[in-house]
Amino acid sequence: MTINYFGSDLYAILSIILSILAYLNFYNFGVPTTVGSLFSSSGEHEFRLKLILKGTILLVAISAILIVLLSFLYLNTDLLVIYFNDELLAETFFLIAIITAINLPLNIFISSFVFYNKIYIERVYFIVSSSLPILSILIADYLELSFNEYLIIRFVLLFLIGIISFIHFLVLFKTYIQKDIFRQFNFFKFYAYKQIIKQSLKYIVIGASALVIWNTDALIMKNFMTLEEITFFLVIFKLFTFSFFIFSAINLIVTPMISDCHAKGDYVNLQYIYNNSLLLSIFIGGSIWIGGLLFSRSIIHFWVGDSIDSDLSTIVFLGAYTAMMSINSLLTTFLIQTNSVKKYGVLVPWIEAVVHTLLVILFLNINQSGFSVAMGIAFGMLSSFIMTPLLLQYKLRGKIIISLSQIIKKVFFMQVPFVLGYISLFTFGYGESTLLNVLYFTFYILYFYTMLESNQKILLKKYLLRK
Asked: For residue 74, what pLDDT is reported?
């Protein structure tokens, strides 16, 4: 919709701006993730609530520093004007960057609903936030606004959602917050925040690797490809990233469960949670990969018209990336919620980031196309896909059983044959039939189900039908 309204060049500029803002946001500087991981230290409500308040105060301090730095950069240098080559666009970027910095402390409250196992509330905020680009486009179209005005509206709406989530949290826990929040501000002592700061540093390092993985591709492609070619790739990639909310829902469900089991030392139930959530992740990852092969071109043509074309090879590698990401994100959740992110837990995502970036640059030097970027992304994830289960197996040895070979075996028998099968169908000219594709996808679901043992089928039904 953004492409249709503003065109491919402005869409590429928007993607670059969002990438830069992601560095500014820096995944909330690891504070919400740290607060979530420390929840497993105690099941007491008052202890957990104070963790959230301390995390909020830290983010307020970080936000104030960012605002000062941004103001100095904009008011005393011409760096933004030089980079964007447009004074009005530089001014707009400064304004939305300030809004992003102000919104930083509010992000923790949306995450906190997950910590308290109120996942449905977090999902509502997620859906509303995800709809803001469309809502902003509709407002811009109705009021006949410019691209710069669209950006300001989009980020102001995001800030309003942050305010609403804060008020919502206050109402939900008003008895405790009204009593404690001012006490936290009035009696600020560094040692009380030392644990959060120390652990947040690890997640900042991990978050930095995630920023490299997620937000450097557009900046790199800018040096090898035209804005139109960048847009083509980003649209395909965006389609796959939309699917992330499906497997992230599993992570949100199991996050408080893992935390509680670890706090109680209940590793029998933790094994149960691991087995079933892994099964679902493999199924969902495979469904996204195979579904992307079958239906992505039709969806893209319906979504943005015939101006965007997609080749099968790019979709194959982006689908493989998504399938591995589905499993890896679950295992990372286990690492975080069992407080197992130590030295090597920080190293693994950085290895992926380095491999990812180097391969993207290498492949783009060989072939300036989205296919090269997709290959770099997939092979980068492969490194993390192999190392993360090995790390988790080492950290939880003697507590739960985790096997990389079993994960690879399940992926190979439950996903790979169908990917290769469709590539063969496409090669021989049978891949464009919608009816055939629907039947093929249905067959995959039935095949996956028949591969399960009887007790796994029962558990899968319970998982999918749980309320």
From this structure: 82
Lowest mean pLDDT among 22-36, 54-68, 417-431, 442-456: 22-36
The H-or-E segment that residue 467 falls in is: none
Closest to 342 (Cα-Cα) out of 391, 382, 385: 391
* Structure tokens given for 257: 């469960």
62 with 197: CB under 8 angstroms? Answer: no
Nearest 5°: the CA angle 436, 441, 447 is 125
Same domain, 238 and 324: yes
Sequential DSSP letters for 177-199: HHHHHHHHHHT--HHHHHHHHHH
188 — pLDDT class (breaks 50, 70, 90): very low
Query: Which whole number is the average pLDDT over 420-449?
Result: 81
Buried-state track 335-346, b at ≥16 Cβ within 10 A, e below 16: bbbbbbbeeebb
CB 251 within 8 A of CB 126: no
Q: Which stretch of DSSP H or E encloses residue 170? A: helix 147-172
Buried b / exposed e across 9-19, counting CB within 10 Å, b at 16+? ebbbbbbbbbb
What would the pLDDT profile of 342-397 be if each residue is shown by its tens digit? 666 677 888 888 898 899 999 999 888 888 889 999 999 998 899 889 888 888 88
Helix orientation angle between 147-172 and 132-143, rounded to the nearest 10 degrees: 130
**Could you please report the per-residue DSSP string of 351-376?**
HHHHHHHHHHHHHHHH--SHHHHHHH
Q: Which of 139, 173, 199 is the last residue of a domain?
A: 199
What percent of the chain is modeled with pLDDT above 90? 3
Cβ-based neighbours of 261, under 8 Å, separated by 6 or more:
267, 269, 270, 273
Which amino acid, 217? D
Specify whether the CB–CB gap between 31 and 200 falls below 8 A: yes
Q: How far is it, in rounded angstroms, from Cα 325 to Cα 410?
A: 15
Report the SS3 class of residue 216.
coil
| Residue 390 lies in domain | 216-467
User: Domain for residue 206, yes or no?
Assistant: no
Nearest Cα to Cα of residue 240 among 257, 217, 256: 217
Could you tell me if 121 and 28 lie in one domain? Answer: yes
Cβ atoms of 212 and 351 closer than 8 Å: no
302 in a structural domain: yes
- Torsion sign over Cα 12, 13, 16, 22: negative
pLDDT at 466 over 80: no
Residue 308 has pLDDT above 60, yes or no: no
